Amino acid sequence: MSSQNEFEDRRAERENAARNADQVADKVELRRQAGHEIQAGQIQDGQIQDGQIQDVQLEQALRNFRLSVHAWSEAELSRPRTATMTVRHRSWRLATGVALGCVLVAGGVSGTVYQRHQKQAEQARIAAQREADHQRQLALQKAREDEDQLLAKVNSDVSREVPDAMEPLAQLMGDEGNQ
Amino acid sequence: MAAGTMMEAVTMATADEPAAREFSSIVATHRPQIFRFLLASTRDPDLAETLTQDCFLKAHRNWASFRGESSPMTWLMRIAINLQKDHWRNRRMQFWRMTRTNSVDVDEAGDWLPSHESSAEQRLLAREQVERVWQAVKGLSERQRTVFLLRHVEEMELGEIARTTGLSEGTVKAHLSRALARVRAEVGGSR
Fold first, then answer.
1. Residue A74 touches chain B, beta carbons under 8 Å
2. Do residues A34 and A55 lie in contact, with contact meaning Cβ atoms separated by under 8 Å?
3. pTM of the full structure
């Protein structure tokens, strides 16, 4: 039993030593990366002397940063999430529906207005044509009447009484025509 | 939860196969880490969640071709980094889209404080430090930020970072050094 305890103690010591060695290696690497040379004799008994570490603040800041990111990440991972994509999808659908509805209404209204406008234009065109026909007929009729009047006048002019001096000749021509 | 439902659907589709069970355990093990890295990279919880889902979806599709040459974590992290790159590249190309992102402001990101700080003064100091580190991280290039986050948030070794990012170890060191110098300058400004 005691030998097992000793074995456990030795193993714990070995683990501690390994952990210390890792920490020292990390510190050395940190200092090297930060642009500081490690002087010989600074490492004693597996540890860097505290007074000689110039970048304690940097080390502390990096440690705090790491712990902060870990804490934030854990909090975010355990936070229940809402399906924002679905909401966005729904709003997108709604917007599309409204836009489509507006387009349909606008199309319907403009179609009706256009159709009415076309109908009115056609009616106006037909009325204008009818009016023009009517005017043309009136003009023709008037022309015909004028012509008739002119012919009547010519006739009346032509058929006026023959002067007395020509009466015998007119009678003769009338007789010849009868024969 | 959306992610849980999706992951369940992915795993249930082939629930009978041992590979699916193995993949399911990989998802359960590595999802927090992938999400954390993407959250730190984007500062946008919704985007990080989406990219995490995409990462595991892609991993699931290619799970049969994973030969185990690297650890699953390295493989998944590589997919996550590529997805993140693709996302920003697509955003840059689609410049006509709305440029607003849901990224949390640096001040807000600094609100998450380690719980061990007891006094109000310690908490204030810690908050200021975290905000300054965020500010520095915000100004880093994409590669520098990736390398910095992998090293100082995910606590990955340099060799593992090199394998994950596909860079040489020397390049990783150079990026890390520049990133750290910037963080150091920012944190040093608070003194």
1. yes
2. yes
3. 0.55
